[in-house]
Design a protein that fits this description.
This protein is mainly alpha-helical. It has 5 helices and 2 strands, in the order E-E-H-H-H-H-H. The longest helix is centred in the N-terminal third of the chain and has 41 residues, at about 15-55.
Length: about 170
């Protein structure tokens, strides 16, 4: 038995209580392991999606360009997760920690912004294709969608950089 002194006196914790607490920790570790495995599988499948759309010309439809943009956003989210792991490793080295923190914030803010708009673009593309199928087939061309995706990423990269720069300047004061 472990004896712990508190304001009310000595409290005894039995072996069963410690075992129950230990079992709960194992459960949490199992959940974390499952979530990490899910993230790795998601990253692998998103990378396969990106490679497939880039490699095969038949897959470069307007909808698949948006799905590829969403896959890139998901990969950025996972890179943000990797930055947070390295932050824990380098938490005692302040300069490295700051760089990793900026990388994490950049990846997470950029991925969240681009994910929201990619989902909106996908919903709009689907709605237009359903409501006006002939017009959509004739007017929404692949080069137009490629430009939309590229401009979308450029705008959000710029906005994310501005947010991080302004946030950094405010935190330094």
């Amino acid at each position: 038995m472990d004896n712990i002194t508190s304001k009310t006196g000595t409290e005894n914790f039995t072996h069963t209580f410690l075992h129950q607490r230990h079992g709960r920790d194992e459960f949490v570790y199992a959940i974390i392991a499952i979530l990490n495995l899910q993230a790795l599988i998601g990253a692998f499948l998103n990378i396969l999606t990106i490679i497939s759309v880039l490699k095969f010309d038949k897959l470069r439809t307007t909808s698949n360009m948006l799905v590829m943009s969403l896959s890139i956003s998901d990969c950025l989210q996972i890179f943000g997760w990797i930055f947070s792991i390295f932050q824990e490793i380098y938490r005692n080295q302040r300069n490295m920690w700051n760089i990793l923190c900026l990388g994490q914030v950049f990846c997470l803010v950029l991925s969240q912004g681009t994910t929201v708009f990619a989902i909106c673009y996908i919903a709009t593309d689907r709605a237009i294709s359903i409501i006006f199928p002939i017009w959509a087939r004739n007017h929404i061309a692949r080069p137009v969608m490629q430009r939309i995706v590229v401009v979308h990423w450029m705008i959000f990269s710029l906005l994310t950089t501005v947010v991080i720069t302004v946030g950094n300047q405010v935190s330094l004061r």
